[in-house]
Amino acid sequence: MQQKTEKIPIKEKIAYLLANTGNIPLMSLTSSFLLIFYTNVVGLNPAAVATLFLISRIMDGINDPIMGFIIDHLPRSKMGRFRPVLIIGSIICCINYVLLWFAPVWAPAGKLTIAYISYLLLGITFDLMDIPLNSILPVMTDDTKERNTLSTLKGLGYIIGTLLITFLAPIILSDASNLAGYYMLISGSVAVVLIFSIIGALGVKERIPPVSEKQYTIMEELKILIEKPVFITFLSMMLYSIGQNITTASYSYFFTYIFGDLKIFSLVTLVTGVGIIPGILIAGPVINKIGKKSMYIFGTLIPVPFLLARYLNVHNLPLLLIAAVISGMSTGILIPMRYGMQADNTDYVILKRKQNAEAAIASLSSFITKCAQGIGGAVPGYLLALTGFNKDATVQSAGVNNAILACSIAIPAAVSTLAAIIFAVYYPITREKLAEQTEKLRALRASGETVE
């Protein structure tokens, strides 16, 4: 007997979109401008900032699964397990986020220490809002089409937040050393995060009951995270995201020192947004025909040749804009899929291990976000320091410019290719296997039985 699926109301879908849009400005600004803010405004050495980014990612490798474990083991309240944590976590994270940017300016004598403390705390406080948000989708519905819709909305929230911030930031800042512009940008972003996240959390519903009440231990969590589809999705998406964030972190330098106008960053962001629209529109129908696996591989590889073509003339604006459109299409395809596959992997674990682990698997998504942002900032930081970057120079050396180009073009192309190869060879959930596991779970819920 097939279980009747409850459809998600429009108001709840809007709330879900708001919650996911509100989650984005924090990491988008950190990825795009924290490195150049710390070097050009705070006056930190780029290598010191790169080391900070890498150390924090090592800590997150330990912290994220622990936070996922804690959230999965919280008692259920009237609001569910995840929504109360999302509201409280958003408030705590925003307080630390303000300190991350401006405490090193307010206390310059201890600026490096303050940067370390607040950035390391970001890894913890961001988990408090990101993991519960990413855990909500599997418990909102078990219907594949509804999940695809919610994944698209989640991706749309990600895209709207990222594009809006990346478009407005260069205009508000006018140049990368404008402290007053940073005050305006960060305060406005924090307000958006708080309002959208809280309204969104209050507007969604956790309606899918657990198939199993069996709780996992820390050691069992490690086994969950290395289940083949979970680990391969994590590894491939992390590589792709690292490449994207290396580009993002280097773009503020690229447009400042190679193009000579930071505001072009806004134009490229706008054009990228134009490419995202067809990516989103074609993703759903094509996934229904060829499956998520094939679509993911296509979306990962499509920007690579256009990235490499930019080496033909790195100052050619039309060539840059064409690459931006294709990159946007890739983003429009992949971002919604990321969260849909996370829900599929959650179901896989429930069937195979007889354990609910929404937050554990969601913790990998949080880790991908932070790891990509950290390494994405660290790689340009180290290369800039190695090649002799001088924040006071209006024209950089050839070595610095080559490092900026490598971060903008070559490295992202290489890691995207590697990500696609890994996923193509090793990801086990085909379209047919996905349909089979969905029906098995529906049958269990419809029977009222729980797996032991």
Q: What's the short story on this structure?
A:
It is built from 16 helices and no strands.
- The CATH topology turns out to be Growth Hormone, Chain: A
What is the percentage of strand-forming residues? under 5%
The counted number of beta strands is: 0
Radius of gyration, taken over Cα atoms and rounded to an integer in Å: 21 Å
Q: How is the main sheet built?
A: none
Q: What low-confidence regions span 5 or more consecutive residues with pLDDT below 50?
A: none
CATH homologous superfamily grouping: MFS general substrate transporter like domains
The class by helix and strand makeup works out as: mainly alpha
The CATH architecture category equals Up-down Bundle
Distance between the termini: 21 Å
Descriptive report:
With 452 residues, the chain is an all-alpha fold. The chain is 80% helix and 0% strand. It has helices at 10-22, 24-42, 46-72, 83-106, 111-140, 144-173, 179-203, 218-225, 228-258, 264-290, 292-301, 304-309, 317-353, 358-386, 398-426, 431-447. The longest helix is centred in the last third of the chain and has 37 residues, at 317-353. The radius of gyration is 21 Å and the shape is globular.
